[in-house]
Amino acid sequence: MPDFPPLLPHGDIQQIFTDVFLVRGQIRIEAEQISEFSRNMIIIRQQDSLTLVNTVRLNDAGLAQLEALGTVQQIVKLGAFHGRDDAFYLDRYSVPLWAPAGMTYTRGEKTTLTLLENMPGPTTDTTVFIFDTAKLPEALILLQREGGILISCDSLQNMLGPDEYFNDIATETKARLGFFNQGTVGPGWLKYAEPKTADFVRLKALEFRHLLSAHGDPLLNDAHQAVKATMQKLFDI
Fold it and tell me: What span, in angstroms and rounded, lies between the C-alpha atoms of 222 and 234?
């Protein structure tokens, strides 16, 4: 087997909506101090086809649960800071990889299909939003179900506090940097990607009710209002 990053703890696959699922796992950042916190993979089912967004590697029991849902047909990498486990799934399933233009990789992956603004996305009922001004590739996909489900990576987050995958270092750091807020723009992404206000003006115009992010809890029913409040606070728009 190829030398993939090690398997990290994760939970069970949970159904959020009909044919939309989420599984939460851990990410470990090893620097001067080890920071452990949570991340989410979103699974979209269309008929028998599964699309994996913001991949999290699953153990054997998790893979069996995944494969009981349908057939993995494609993978989506929305943001430059994610993708640690893409190579594992590409090797296992030999499927296309969607990503925004300019995406770079570290394990030999290649973009198969490019996510383009206002164009159809990985399923027949998704459209794509691109952060045009950001210095790092980042996209959103809008799933036209349940009044609009916006799926994000690091740009929009909904971490309200630490969960079982956080260690003390991550808890303290993310609290201090302002990560624990509803429908917020990821502080780390905002710092390093440096998006301009024009992107958020376009984002504010999107119609959606729910947010499923790579980080935090599902934000259901009032996601658009929460994101609008964030835009007003951060960018005065």
Answer: 19
Q: For residue range 153-168, list pLDDT tens digits in order.
A: 999 999 999 999 999 9
Predicted TM-score (pTM) of the model is 0.96
Owner of token pair 């009710």: 209
CA distance 170 to 33: 9
Kindly list the distances between the CA atom of residue 187 and the CA atoms of 114, 193, 217, in Å, as whole numbers in the listed order.
Answer: 26, 10, 17
Quickly name the fold that domain 14-235 has.
Metallo-beta-lactamase; Chain A (3.60.15)
CA angle at residue 21 from 53 to 14, to 5 degrees? 130
What's the full length of the chain, in residues? Answer: 237
